[in-house]
Every structure is written in structure tokens, then in C-alpha cells.
Design goal:
The protein contains twelve helices and 13 strands. The chain is an alpha/beta fold and 349 residues long.
Length: 349
């Protein structure tokens, strides 16, 4: 059975640009009088490696408390626009139209849309009435890698068909004024909005092929990362320090995933990682026995866009593709579960 191959990859961000220094100044105004520990946590903003981020709403919108109805309305409008933009670019790059797409995998964990996003944009995108729709929720930051794995398997199952993957997250809409916690401050310091779209097809011998994929779910780790839900909306859960977890547990998990692929760490020419933040990138380099500074595209993406959750790793892949991929690359992303998702890419010159 032929491997699925990347036909095109495109990214999109909303128009509002927030400088990290301006977000920190606004956070001081919002939290300092109600949260005495904010001063101690404020150094997080300068430790993320982020210079700027993009958001779906203007800056002032986030300075007022928001509830579910406002957040959901903002999610639907913003996500539909980003979906159409990212998918439209990917289709154009692949010399396809919406009518050529046979399967759509939509990954998002930062809002609720029923009907799902691909149905909401079907008319403007020109998707056929018989298109297969696969909406995926709950994978968080691992969703870009896991979504690519799912889309690749669907393409491989029906060679010659066109599969569109869209990963889209509006993390900024989870900003909370009422949660006076370190986890919320971390979220405010990290998250941005963005989308990425990939077209895949099997059977055409494309240059960049999805060679294999694997997952690792750590037991008893549900509380490490996720959402809580209350009348105000989603609230972020960070109950353990991710860099410390990466240093302690990632390497053996990666070895197990690669062993199932009949590979070793030494067989990987380049790692393409989800950059959760500067400290996470440093921890990834240590855990994967890489020289500090190796994950250069990851640092550039986190600086320019922040952590956009699921699409972030596809932004990194886009930069890595532009620089030129070696023979074998491994995408890795960590997400709620707590889990690791990996996709092995084989580049054929």
C-alpha cells in the first residue's frame, strides 16, 4: 500500500498582532491588585521566548471579562475565517478546488462547533455533498501531529483521493480574568491563535511521505494538561511542570514509539517538535540528546506566533520544509492525556 505524501502545506493567522511586552503590561493592570502572587509569576512572560502573537479579537476585547456566549461567537466567526484562509491557500498550492477534496480532518480543541467547522464553511469552500468529514476534538497541542497521522491513514486507505487536514485553534479566547492561578498566568503568557492546512494524497510518489506514526499515553497523568469547564468557559489546567516531565519521561517513550517503527533515535536526521515554550524546547533538546540550539525552527515559531496549540507543529514543519528536509524527520508533539504523538516523514530527493 503506498504511503500518503504531502501535496501542500499552508498556514494562516488572524490580523491582530500582540507584542509580548504589551500583553505583560495589560496583565499587570488586570491581575496585580487582585492576585498578590502575580509579581512573582510575571517573569514567566520574559521566559517564554515569545516576541509577538496573533489573536482573533482586538486587544481591548480581552481586557473585559467574557462568558461562554461571547467566547463561542468569537470562536465560530474567527475559526471559520481562518479555516477558509488556510484551506484556501493549501488548495491553491495543490492546484485543487474544494470540490476535489474527498476527506476533511478538522482538528480543534479551543471551541465547540456543532455543526463542525468544515460543515460551516462547506458552501464558501465548494466542498462536495459527499465529502467525508472527520472532526477531532480534545487532542490539544498534540492535535497537529495526531491529525496528520489520522489524515495520512485515511489517504493511504484510499489511494488517489485528496485528504484535507485543517488544525485550527483560538487559544486566546480562553484568557480568564477570574482564575487567579499560576496556570492561568502561564496561559496568558503563552497562547496565540492560528491555523494550518495540509493536503495529502497516496499513490503519486510525492517527495515528502508519511512513513509511520505512533502514540504514547502515560498512565495516571490526566491532570497534567487540559481544560476545566465552568459558566465562564474553558479554564486551563497545568498541574505539573511540563519541562521537568519531558526531562524525566520523554526519552523512553520516544524509544518505544521508534522501536515499534523499527527505528532508533539515531535513525532520525531531524526532529520537528511542538514548541510549548522556551523551557520546553530546551528540555526537548536535552531529552532527545540534541545540541542546545538545534531546534531552530521551533524557537523562531514560538517567537513569532506563541503557542497556538495544535497547528504550531505544522508551522514548524512549514519552516523546516522551506530549509529542506533530510531523509528522515520525526514530528513530535505532547498533549493532554498526557500523551506524545509522533509522525515519521521520509523525504525522497
Amino acid at each position: 500500500m503506498p504511503n500518503a505524501a504531502l501535496v501542500s502545506l499552508a498556514t494562516s493567522v488572524p490580523p491582530h498582532v500582540f507584542l509580548q511586552k504589551d500583553v505583560l503590561a495589560a496583565a499587570w493592570d488586570v491581575f496585580r491588585t487582585r492576585f498578590p502572587e502575580f509579581e512573582r509569576f510575571s517573569s514567566i512572560f520574559s521566559n517564554t521566548g515569545i516576541i509577538k502573537r496573533h489573536a482573533v479579537k482586538p486587544f481591548d476585547w480581552y481586557l473585559e471579562p467574557r462568558g461562554w456566549p461571547e467566547r463561542t461567537a468569537a470562536f465560530l466567526a474567527g475559526a471559520e475565517a481562518l479555516f477558509a484562509d488556510a484551506a484556501g491557500k493549501a488548495l491553491a498550492d495543490a492546484h485543487l478546488t474544494g470540490a476535489d477534496i474527498d476527506t476533511i480532518v478538522t482538528v480543534s480543541s479551543t471551541g465547540i462547533a456543532t455543526p463542525s467547522l468544515e460543515a460551516r464553511v462547506a458552501g464558501r469552500m465548494g466542498f462536495r455533498s459527499d465529502v467525508m468529514r472527520v472532526p477531532v476534538f480534545g487532542l490539544g497541542c498534540a492535535g497537529g501531529s495526531s491529525g496528520l497521522s489520522i489524515a495520512a491513514r485515511l489517504a493511504q486507505a484510499r489511494p488517489g483521493t485528496n485528504v484535507l487536514l485543517v488544525a485550527i485553534e483560538l487559544c486566546s479566547l480562553a484568557l480568564r480574568h477570574d482564575e487567579l492561578t499560576k496556570a492561568n498566568i502561564v496561559a496568558v503568557s503563552l497562547f496565540g491563535d492560528g491555523a494550518a492546512a495540509v493536503v495529502l494524497r497516496a499513490g503519486d510518489g510525492g517527495a515528502t511521505q508519511i512513513e509511520n506514526a505512533g502514540e504514547y499515553l502515560w498512565p495516571d497523568t490526566l491532570g497534567i494538561m487540559g481544560w476545566s469547564v465552568d459558566p465562564q468557559g474553558f479554564g486551563v489546567i497545568f498541574r505539573r511542570t511540563i519541562p521537568n516531565f519531558v526531562l524525566a519521561h520523554l526519552n523512553p517513550a520516544m524509544v518505544q514509539i521508534l522501536t515499534a517503527m523499527q527505528l532508533t533515535l539515531a535513525d532520525v536526521d531531524r526532529f520537528i517538535c511542538h514548541p510549548g515554550g522556551a523551557k520546553v524546547i530546551n528540555a526537548l533538546e536535552t531529552a532527545l540528546a540534541l545540541d542546545q540550539g538545534t531546534l531552530d525552527c521551533e524557537r523562531q515559531v514560538i517567537a513569532d506566533y506563541g503557542n497556538m496549540s495544535s497547528p504550531t507543529i505544522l508551522f514548524v514543519l512549514q519552516q523546516a520544509l522551506a530549509k529542506g528536509l533530510p531523509a528522515r524527520s520525526l514530528l513530535t508533539a505532547l498533549g493532554p492525556g498526557f500523551s506524545a504523538s509522533c509522525v515519521a516523514l521520509r523525504h525522497v530527493a
